[in-house]
Each structure stands twice: as C-alpha cells, then as structure tokens.
C-alpha cells in the first residue's frame, strides 16, 4: 500500500454549550462533560434526551475534531472531559488511543457487537472506541448547477480544472473530515503524487474553512457548487429543502464515527451510563433522524444510503499507517499549504 498524509487550519475558541447547571470539569459526579465536533443542535438534543432519563447534567464542549484532541492533550495531566463522540471517523480515535487520551469501555447495550461488518471495522478490538454510526466521505453538489453525469467518478478526477473556482473542502488542521481526505489520498496515490493532488485541490478551492460542514453549507449560499464532506451533511441540507445532493466516488473512505471514554475523566460512572445510552436504540434513533447511517438494524434510517450499498465502494484503510502518520500529515499540510 502506498503511503501519504495531510491537514488544515483551525478556528479560534472552543464553544461550550451548557445543557444544564454545574461547572465544567472539576470532578462533579453529577456532571458529564461531553466533547463533540458533531452538529451542535444534534449534540444538544442527545444531551437533553439523556438528561430526561438520568440524574446527570450534560455539558457539551463543542469544537473541531483536532481542536478537541489538542484540548485533551493539554488536559492530560488533569482530564476535564468524560466522553468524546465524533471526529470524522475512527482515525483520530486510533491516534488518541495511542497517546493514552481515551481508554477501553464496552457499552452494555452493544456488548455483542462484532469487530467488523464485512471489511469495515466497527469497533476497536479491545473496545478502545465503539462505532456509533457509519459515515461515507464523498461529494456534496448543487444539482441545479452540475449534471449528475459530470460528477467525478474517482477522487483523482476532482483535481480536474473543471472544478476550479467551484470547489470547497475543509481545513485538515482543524477538521477530522479533511484529515481523512488527506490521509486516504496519500495512501492511495503515494507521497509525491498525493501532495501534488492536494495542492491542486487547494488551488482550485474558493475557500478552505475550518469546519467540516462549512463547505457543504457553502453550496446553499452559492459560494461553491461542489464540496468534500460526509453524506449526512448533504442530506441534512436536502431535508430542509435546499438544493444539495450527494455523490459517492469509487474507492472512498467508508468508516464508523466512534464514541469513547476519556482516560481518567472526572465522572467515569456517568461516562459509562452516557455511552450505554448513546449506543442504545433510542440514542441511535436520534442520530438516524439527523441523517446518520445507523448500525442497528432496528433503528429506522432517514438517509437513502445503507451499509450494504456502500460496502463495495469502501477504500481499504491501513489503521497502523494512520496512527503512525496522523500528526505528521497535519504538520506537512501547514508547511506546504497553510
């Protein structure tokens, strides 16, 4: 397998969304500190639904994936978070596990979960992280501006001059979504060709925002006609009646988006209860209602994509290589592109 990597710039301050009273961190066993880069309204809904049934307050610490990881590193001598959910797939979780930032826990509601579904890993072998839903990396686009038969059938075709001035993708220094794009293409193309490809995408882009969802949103404002993002991002906009659709290139990353317990967090018991609930049918149904692809067959999906349909298009991702190169990719992106 060829080797390669990359990443982009992060936005300023972490946003703390308080779902209840109680201070952030500090070991209050009535508070669960919940770290997530996922859709703020959805994470708030998850926190609220959990609090309706449990005697805890949930405080959501929302920021980009790599911002949250940097925060966990800074707090490693005195961890403040309890649960981390979401990060553009398992890549940052494998890296965090290697650094001791998260620790194994088996959610009681999915303790019979197999390690893989077909060729797709759905949990860590030792439960260092647990897949909460499935994500597909692909291309959101404006069907009023781009005919379906024009769309790139491979990731390599996205570098065609046709997309200059119409493309956006997120910043790998801040976004797990973009980090996945970089790593996957460096694996596929190799170091030299991969970086040339990524530099071409950067030249073609109208903007490279920090947020993983911002490029897809840019389609709705006319700032872009095609954007790199996850399936649910496009379908959330389409569900609101906006002119956005989703296209899946051949050999694309298809991977689970995990949840994990933060090592030595101040509320271990609360973290376990929250993870159990997040992996329950109820917790998965809320995420499915936000267009995430559920892993539980008993959960009613609102997205048109199923795991069975995308499995054949999934790129083979080398977990060990990702762990070895994750940080280097972000550093090299900054040096080469900004």
Automatic annotation (TrEMBL):
A Pfam family assignment: SBP_bac_6
Keywords tagged on the record: Signal
Gene3D superfamilies (alphabetical): Periplasmic binding protein-like II
InterPro entries documented for this protein: Ferric-bd (IPR026045)
Name of the molecule in the record: Extracellular solute-binding protein
